[in-house]
Amino acid sequence: MMDQFTLNLLFVGASFAVYIGIAIWARAGSTSEFYAAGRGVHPVTNGMATAADWMSAASFISMAGLIAFTGYDNSTFLMGWTGGYVLLALLLAPYLRKFGKFTVSEFIGDRFYSKTARMVAVICLIVASTTYVIGQMTGVGVAFGRFLEISNTSGLLIGACVVFAYAVFGGMKGVTYTQVAQYVVLIMAYTIPAIFISLQLTGNPVPALGLFGDHVASGEPLLAKLDSIVAELGFAEYTTHHSDTLNMVLFTLSLMIGTAGLPHVIMRFFTVPRVADARWSAGWALVFIALLYLTAPAVGAMARLNITELMWPNGTDAQAVSVEDIASDPKYDWMQTWQKTGLLDWEDKNGDGRIQYYNDADAAMQEKATANGWTGNELTKFNRDILVLANPEIANLPGWVIGLVAAGGLAAALSTAAGLLLAISSAVSHDLIKGQLNPNISEKNELMAARVAMGVAIVVATYLGLNPPGFAAQTVALAFGLAAASIFPALMMGIFSTKINNHGAVAGMLAGLLVTLIYIFLHKGWFFIPDTNSFTDADPLLGTIKSTSFGAVGAMINFAVAYVVASMTKETPQEIKDLVESVRVPKGAGAATDH
Amino acid sequence: MSDKEASNAYWKANVRLILWSLLIWAIVSFGFGILLRPMLSGIAVGGSDLGFWFAQQGSILVFLALIFFYAWRMNKLDAEHGVGEE
């Protein structure tokens, strides 16, 4: 019998060998292939690759953990990160495909007939994408830390090297086909343990249905059981609404708009052969995404129930789990392994030989604690980002499932990090250097510049990833806020209004980006450096609006500023109005042209 | 009908379709999932209520249906107005 470490290594190693094999096989030759895979990608294939590209460490590693420990209030992630595809399919994808250029900033530069607009768009893309990569690096650190059984920090550094080596290998083409492989790995890794756990708890093989089914052991509905068990420990009921409604709405909206404003997702729709395919592609992408997103709430709820029951093996009224059991019972091995990463910890504060897990901030529980001689919650640290990776171990599933999940988590983080690095590098080499500084740059030097830009981006992201502004999904949510406030409004106005001119677009993007960025920095620290913040999200600057929800406000500022400035300045010239008219109809869509 | 008129009519039909679709998009997520949840709390769905279901699963399923409906409808509109790619 192989030990778990070897098994993890085997699964991760084998999956990597496949990705790298595909990347070598499909190595990018020309610049056109590097960016957009020569446009020969079928909508279903493209949808699957988009799904892998899109579902990052945030979706795979982090999201279910955030739902598990908060419950209903974090449904915002589920709605926000899927609802954006509706905006993408209806408002952007077909028109950007018709426009027929390689990058988002090219569209903005041409539509707003302004090199300044293109530059501003490039800056917005770089800021949003870099923030996004920080979130990915957080997830990469957790995944590598676990499967190599080392600290989170060492995991992060090793992961950064792997991501870099991987991203430099190929362009979009390599990435498209590897991403199909990554999708297959990550969806299996996500759903297989969920199916096992759903069968254990509810007897239903479909986790999404099991979530609303009955808990076999108690005969009660699973969610009712969960509500009562967490309430008995002083935590908020799982299915009820606790946070303020305004933030829930704004946060969901920010994630939705941000989805439709992120360059690495939009770029995908440049790679389909026809305008009609761009519409279908968005649908297919969401089909493949929904497979994970419909499973995620089940994973969260079931893991929360499992963890709570492990900590209170004989019910919440009986004795808590003993320190000795944690040390010796194989059911608790996962706690030992995860303690090594520094992301999970416990402490027998009152020295009774047992670990009491409860909400020590709850008034009613404090009374109960005093009566029982408890001196505070003893499960002192449970990083949300470990939940999905630890889930199969928590449920005591076979070793190969655990290895598979490690491979899946890395696939998710790696594919998105690679897609983002590609977006950053193309923004720098194609838009900044070729479009602005040195139009006569050779293809070879352009590719070189692209790779240097990737290197710089990953170093910055790794450095900031060591002290991230939040759990992976929360950091990623900030990136969405930035994209929502800057890029999406400019793209949408560019297509749906002929009135918005160059000055309007530039002013709108700058206002949206700067106000949102400053608001985030005020709450999360300047450039995300810890302890440089003046406010916290518990007590935000503007009433109740958290910095994570601010993207939607930033987008409104962008729209308003663009409109006002455009009304005061010179009207859009006729040839640009004609361009907008032509973008609106599919007729005449040809292959993309380079500048 | 000239090309210009054809594309104007096409664009109007498209914008109308988009507005209707986005209305449904907002109702299922921001509406049923969040703001209107208290009104749906009487309708039980497996241990919770309909609003919880919409927030966790229902809205995603509706989003899917919306995108495919839009793609299908638009491809028909392209042909009807003679503005398709072929």
From TrEMBL, chain B:
Transmembrane segments: 17-40, 52-72
Superkingdom: Bacteria
Metal-binding in keyword set: no
Signal sequence interval, chain numbering: none
Alphabetically ordered keywords of this record: Membrane, Transmembrane, Transmembrane helix
Residue span(s) of domain Sodium symporter small subunit: 8-83
Keyword Chloroplast found: no
Protein name: Putative solute:sodium symporter small subunit
Annotated source species: Roseovarius lutimaris
